[in-house]
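Dear Dr. K.,

Following up on our conversation at the group meeting, I've run the structure prediction for Restriction endonuclease type IV Mrr domain-containing protein from Rathayibacter rathayi. I'm pasting the input sequence below exactly as I used it, so you can double-check it against your construct before we proceed with anything downstream. Let me know if the numbering doesn't match what you have in your notebook.
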Amino acid sequence: MNLDVDGADFSFPSNWDVLKYDDSEFFQKVFIRTHDGIKAIDLVAIQRDLDGADIRLVLIEVKDYRHADARGLHPTELATIVAKKVTATLAGLSAATRKAENMDERTLAIRSGQAPAVKIVLHCEDRAVPIIDPSDLLIKLRQRLGPIADVVTVGSSRNTRGEWTVLMPSLA
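The predicted structure tokens came back this morning:
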């Protein structure tokens, strides 16, 4: 399965079911109206084992800081933004189990609540000389999200921290 997230081409193996959550019908038509400024994670994915059983919910947020005008947020600030998106997404998935009209979205939401493990990935593309220290960012993310996830990590197209691949667009 291939998905485009702001120009980045994510490719997942066949044992993954993935939804561009912040573009989903439920989020765009229903959940976004719950309060001003609510934001969500880019991708909600469910990984299945060889027998087809769901083994993990993976939430992926994508940030691209390769552009010349990109402003790197302080790791604490970025971790706060990601934590808000994660918690809003989890709340949205819970509501979608009952209220999503799109049955594919509802089914994925139900499965996400039943997944035995949760992994949160901040996919962060940076310049050759990083404007954000990934190790500091990882510490801040784990402080915020570690209590609600089994794994919290920072990946990039060079090391996705998962079974998927990412092809980033060329910079003009």
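Two things stood out to me. The chain is about 30% helix and 25% strand. Residues 2-167 form one domain.

Best regards,
J.T.
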